[in-house]
Design a protein that fits this description.
Length: 111
């Protein structure tokens, strides 16, 4: 990621712009692997860490990025702006059961 930059965690809610947009994206993803997906959605300033999608008109991604603008820039360069709208929310607290450190929780309101 960016040299000397501070990466932040973001939860993004993505919504398809139309049923046709969703159908086109789903068809494009049919031949993709998880590796393809994560390699495609990364840059020096942003990358997808996790992705959740169901049958609804929206899906979610956990991003690591310098800023929300860097996420939107990467999505724009990938052509995603034509098919989805994205709400990126910075999350000051990020903890995971995959890496328990026994540290005090970050309280976003105290930041």
């Amino acid at each position: 990621m960016g040299e000397g930059s501070e990466m932040k965690h973001f939860m993004c809610t993505h919504s398809y712009l139309s049923g046709d947009a969703k159908e086109n994206v789903v068809n494009e993803l049919r031949e993709s692997t998880d590796r393809d997906f994560f390699e495609f959605y990364q840059s020096d300033k942003a990358r997808v860490l996790q992705h959740w999608a169901g049958k609804d008109e929206f899906f979610f991604c956990h991003w690591e990025a310098e800023s929300a603008d860097d996420i939107h820039e990467l999505l724009s360069k990938a052509g995603a702006d034509d098919v989805i709208i994205t709400l990126a929310n910075e999350m000051q607290r990020y903890i995971t059961s995959h890496n328990i450190e026994d540290k005090k929780l970050v309280i976003p309101e105290d930041e």
